[in-house]
């Protein structure tokens, strides 16, 4: 609501006749279409902008005033290409000015496009930043994520050259003409990038109405009415009335920031990915691509989508490298089937990875013959893996196999009516007892029908779902979320790839939701896994003879907006589901006997407590069917989240706590005959899974989770109470802290009251334990010395050496002696993304290797000179160079860089000192190669 109000007010001011606060007083004409496109989008509006300008700025000379506080005036300014005669006239007119006037510095400048955009949320900000970076505005980023999410669109092709002072211009007219030519070239590059950004916006869901038209837009009128006291209808309300997400609503694709291993390890296609660790992490296996030379892989990579951590799983007895295989999770085991080892070696082997021990094992499977194949599809129901189709040279399979992972036997299911036919590169998913297949390549065409298979009745069915059927496609993504089946990406690649087609299995209707992506992702042969309410997409890409190999970076899509519009419908359906006329639950004779399992009695009224009481009942399921049963209980609100599930002593069964609502359904049941007919109701599905009900078993209640700050407060409060100290001290506890490796670092202001000292080490051990820290420290002020040493104090632990991993690079340092800068992560990523393969880099303020290591490890610099005068930082730098195996390409120069830095060797010079590196500017220029080419003889330092 606040976002809409601010947007309405801003757009109203844009359309007003009054001048704005800029020196020009109005919008720059060259970018008005671009601003209109941004402002038309419901998730963005611009707050300030400049199309790019060439200028001569005169600022009062002052040794005390801050540079930005000096004021000044433009002697020349244009938002178009500069005319050299006009520039010379403006500049040398100043040279002849009255000498008694205030002395000013005169600077010639080129500044590229810059736009500040307020975004509705962080996801929207990530989307427009991705578009801007792809268009060449590589310094774009999110500048604020507080109450307002602000994005800056900008790049680095700026120029600033001092010309002298008023009355004393120190350069010739020829040099000024040269500068004008350089500035005009930069203006041309700026306009090309601006046009590219404009086209990228148009191609990714942005529209373009003029400012005046915007004022007449119904959406803005509604917001304006709300500002004046009217009532605005929220987007969620509109969506609920419309019955779904509107045609103009988009799901943003957000790039995932990867920590730990390099993101290039996930540059794959033809790989597989499964969720593990209670479906919170994604296990990636095999595929083509990876770091270094692209090839078929057999790596196991574990991705944490929430934290972005990527680790290599150390395994034993890995299968041969492959792509086009399938991987299926059954319990804690991942089964890999088939694939292609090389163009002539097609596989039909079966491997299993125990995700607990990380040991691979090749399986010998009997039963029906399973021919070698790749590009087939697999899905799991219970302990069985269903495989359909595939490809082997010119043979396209129509066979349907099931692998029983208990007895390790293949069974071929005969074809029946309405079967999908021969295909490869299709997708298949499972939900409850049904399999769904979509797309793929047949023997002569691309396919686009949705088929289902019921594993209970062994019947195929061509689904008839209302609405626009998705386009025919292959090598696409398919996933299950709630009661939706989602389809996206694939080939042929066109605009339809930028949407998700959703089959609503409750309403039996197709929905199509556009994706607001950066346009650079190629979702072909990718993988998709649902983690909580996010779709995690890994890999994808293609090889093109004209443009080379293209890979997609890992992405996430928030799926919650899909169901926000159907909340009312879902609630009504849940209410109806509670009124089941004839539920069926198996007797104890339907599952393997267990002495500790109490069978459901024929009459169990006394076993069930009131609706408001606490249920003590559990559902007993075989371990192989535990996931399916748990999902079914959770889906219908029958899983009691206040108690823990537990494993029976036999190790083969899991007990899930159930709610009173579930018990009430059992109480309403009058017949428990084994021969009762099955239906689509959920209780018969539990019956089919072999569920047994255990009454009056209280189990163990789940401990409610608390944030660390609350845990610390409770622990310290208990300590104060034992020491008979005032509880008022609790108000001084820190609310935030940082982590350096395994050290939790408290703020400098923490526990400064002298009364804390009486608790001694007991206080620090209590705090460390409550925060789950092996070592505890308190931050100190950065020393005001030239070496800017850290004064961090270790409270629990022996020393301050830590190891921090970032963007695949290891940084180790003594935190009590060296500070670590968190604020330059985006700049380190930018440096790492450069191509410095044949370049020499000089870093004048190397520190522990903040930028030295990205230049060497990721940007592949030929050689880096690292200048540093802090001996503690130098010790850490040398260790880091060895740890990252790049010591042979770095020369460490100890001492003042003004004395030690090399001259005339560098393609790039890095000046990374805060708050200013001005004292080393001359050193930086002298280190550049071009300087000695143009100035082979010493010149006066006053020139700088």
Mean pLDDT: 78
CATH class of the domain at 255-477: Mainly Beta
Write down the Rg.
Answer: 33 Å
Uncertain regions: pLDDT < 50 for 5+ in a row?
A: 63-69, 95-100, 208-248, 565-614, 670-680, 700-704, 933-944
* Largest sheet properties: 8 strands, mixed
Strand content: 25-35%
Percent of residues in helices = 10-25%
Reported CATH architecture of the domain at 255-477: 6 Propeller
The counted number of beta strands is 56
Instruction: Please give the count of helices.
Output: 21
Structural class call reads: alpha+beta
Strand order of the largest sheet: 34-35-36-37-10-42-39-38
Q: Could you name the CATH homologous superfamily of the domain at 255-477?
A: Kelch-type beta propeller
CATH topology of the domain at 255-477: Neuraminidase
What is the 3D shape? globular
- State the distance separating the first and last CA atoms: 52 Å
Keywords: Methyltransferase, S-adenosyl-L-methionine, Transferase, tRNA processing
Protein name: SAM-dependent methyltransferase TRM5/TYW2-type domain-containing protein
Region (Disordered): 1-25, 583-609
Domain SAM-dependent methyltransferase TRM5/TYW2-type: 737-944
């Amino acid at each position: 609501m606040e976002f809409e109000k601010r947007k309405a007010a801003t757009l109203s001011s844009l359309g007003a006749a009054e001048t704005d606060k800029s020196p020009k007083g109005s919008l720059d004409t060259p970018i008005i279409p671009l601003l209109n496109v941004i402002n038309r989008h419901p998730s963005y509006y611009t707050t300030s902008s400049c199309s790019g300008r060439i200028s001569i700025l005169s600022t009062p000379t002052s040794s005390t005033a801050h540079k930005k506080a000096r004021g000044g005036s433009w002697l020349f300014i244009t938002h178009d290409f500069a005319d050299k005669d006009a520039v010379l006239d403006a500049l040398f007119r100043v040279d002849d000015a009255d000498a008694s006037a205030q002395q000013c510095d005169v600077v010639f400048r080129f500044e590229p496009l810059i736009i500040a955009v307020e975004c509705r949320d962080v996801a929207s900000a990530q989307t427009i930043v991705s578009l801007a970076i792809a268009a060449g505005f590589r310094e774009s980023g999110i500048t604020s994520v507080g109450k307002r999410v602000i994005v800056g669109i900008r790049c680095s092709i700026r120029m600033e050259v001092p010309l002298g002072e008023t009355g004393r211009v120190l350069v010739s007219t020829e040099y000024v003409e040269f500068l004008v030519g350089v500035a005009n070239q930069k203006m041309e590059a700026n306009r090309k990038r601006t046009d590219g950004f404009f086209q990228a916006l148009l191609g990714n869901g942005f529209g373009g109405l003029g400012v005046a038209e915007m004022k007449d837009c119904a959406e803005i009128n509604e917001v304006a009415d709300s500002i004046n006291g009217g009532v605005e209808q929220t987007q969620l309300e509109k969506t609920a009335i419309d019955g779904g997400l509107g045609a103009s609503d988009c799901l943003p694709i957000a790039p995932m920031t990867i920590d730990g291993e390099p993101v290039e390890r996930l540059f794959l296609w033809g790989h597989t990915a499964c969720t593990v660790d209670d479906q919170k992490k994604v296990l990636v296996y095999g595929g083509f691509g990876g770091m270094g030379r692209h090839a078929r892989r057999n790596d196991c990579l574990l991705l944490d989508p929430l934290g972005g951590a990527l680790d290599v799983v150390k395994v034993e007895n890995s299968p041969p490298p492959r792509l086009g295989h399938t991987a299926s999770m059954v319990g804690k085991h991942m089964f890999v089937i088939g694939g292609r080892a090389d163009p002539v070696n097609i596989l039909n082997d079966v491997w299993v990875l125990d995700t607990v021990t990380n040991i691979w094992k090749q399986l010998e499977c009997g039963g029906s013959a399973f021919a070698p194949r790749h590009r087939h599809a697999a899905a799991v129901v219970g302990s069985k893996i269903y495989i359909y189709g595939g490809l082997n040279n010119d043979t396209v399979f129509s066979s349907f196999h099931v692998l029983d992972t208990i007895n390790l036997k293949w069974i071929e299911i005969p074809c029946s009516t309405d079967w999908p036919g021969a295909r490869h590169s299709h997708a298949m998913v499972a939900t409850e007892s049904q399999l769904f297949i979509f797309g793929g390549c047949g023997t002569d065409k691309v396919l686009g029908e949705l088929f289902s298979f019921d594993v209970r009745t062994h019947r195929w069915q061509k689904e008839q779902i209302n609405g626009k059927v998705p386009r025919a496609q292959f090598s696409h993504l398919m996933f299950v979320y709630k009661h939706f089946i989602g389809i996206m990406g694939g080939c042929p690649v066109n605009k339809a790839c930028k949407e998700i087609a959703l089959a609503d299995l409750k309403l039996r209707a197709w929905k199509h939701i556009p994706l607001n992506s950066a346009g650079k992702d190629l979702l072909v042969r990718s993988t998709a896994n649902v983690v909580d309410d996010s779709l995690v997409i890994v890999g994808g890409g293609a090889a093109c003879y004209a443009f080379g190999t293209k890979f997609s970076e890992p992405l996430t899509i928030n799926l919650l907006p899909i169901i926000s519009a159907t909340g009312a419908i879902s609630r009504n359906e849940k209410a109806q589901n509670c009124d089941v006329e004839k539920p069926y639950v198996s007797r104890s004779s339907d599952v393997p006997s267990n002495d500790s399992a109490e069978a459901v009695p024929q009459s169990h009224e006394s076993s069930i407590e009131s609706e408001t009481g606490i249920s003590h009942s559990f559902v007993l399921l075989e371990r192989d069917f535990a996931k399916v049963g748990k999902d079914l209980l959770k889906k219908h609100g029958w899983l009691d989240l206040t108690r823990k599930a537990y494993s029976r002593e036999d190790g083969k069964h899991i007990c899930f706590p159930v709610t009173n609502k579930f018990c009430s359904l059992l109480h309403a049941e009058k017949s428990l005959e084994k021969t009762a007919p099955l239906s689509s109701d959920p209780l018969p599905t539990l019956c089919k899974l072999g569920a047994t009900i255990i009454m009056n078993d209280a189990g163990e209640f789940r401990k409610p989770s608390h944030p660390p700050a609350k845990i610390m407060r409770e622990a310290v409060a208990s300590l104060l109470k034992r020491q008979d100290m005032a509880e008022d001290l609790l108000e001084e506890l820190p609310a935030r802290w940082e982590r350096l490796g395994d050290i939790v670092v408290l703020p400098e202001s923490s526990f400064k009251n002298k009364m804390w000292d009486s608790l001694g080490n007991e206080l620090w051990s209590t705090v460390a334990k409550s925060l789950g820290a092996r070592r505890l420290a308190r931050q100190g002020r950065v020393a005001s010395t030239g070496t800017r040493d850290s004064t961090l104090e270790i409270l629990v632990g022996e020393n301050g050496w830590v190891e921090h991993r970032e963007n695949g690079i290891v940084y180790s340092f003594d935190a009590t002696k060296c500070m670590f800068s968190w604020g330059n992560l985006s700049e380190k990523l930018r440096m790492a993304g450069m191509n410095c393969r044949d370049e020499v880099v000089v870093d004048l303020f190397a520190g522990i290797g903040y930028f030295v290591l990205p230049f060497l490890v990721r940007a592949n610099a030929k050689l880096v000179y690292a200048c540093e005068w802090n001996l503690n930082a130098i010790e850490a730098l040398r260790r880091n160079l060895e740890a990252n195996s790049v010591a042979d390409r770095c020369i460490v120069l100890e001492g003042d860089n003004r004395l030690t830095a090399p001259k005339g060797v560098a393609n790039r010079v890095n000046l990374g000192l805060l708050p200013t590196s001005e004292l080393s500017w001359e050193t930086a220029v002298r280190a550049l190669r071009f300087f000695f080419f143009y100035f082979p003889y010493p010149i006066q330092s006053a020139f700088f």
